[in-house]
Amino acid sequence: MIYRKSTKHKTITADNGFDFDARLDAFTSSLDEKQIDYEVETNPVAGFIAFIKYQVIVEIPESVKEEHELHGDRFYCGSCPRMAKNTDGRFKWLRCDLDGKLHHTETSSCCNAFYEWLETGKWKERSEEDEQ
User: Fold this and answer.
1) Has this prediction a pTM greater than 0.85?
2) Residue 46 burial (10 A CB sphere; 0-12, 13-18, 19+)
3) Which end of the chain is more exposed for a tag (fewer CB within 10 A), N or C?
């Protein structure tokens, strides 16, 4: 996932002080709820106008897995059809059919190949970068 800071601007104007205060308070409250830092500039000579400058963090997914996780779709190895379930109760690790390694648990996050299978219906062999 790539995280990039992006600067946003918002201008709030109104005809009277009551509307101006209500609009400014509503917008700054929404930023406070999201825990976003902001700066407010006002100029009493210019009238009821405020310039708000704030920064948001934009998340850019780099894989199909990250796209799904960004939208709240998260799957675990226990739900993968390629995961070989262990019948021996002494072992908590599961063997993945794709990479053949014995380092997965039912609560491990699924690999990128699983999410590609969800979208295309075809299995792609797992690469070294998917093991992260």
Assistant:
1) no
2) exposed
3) C
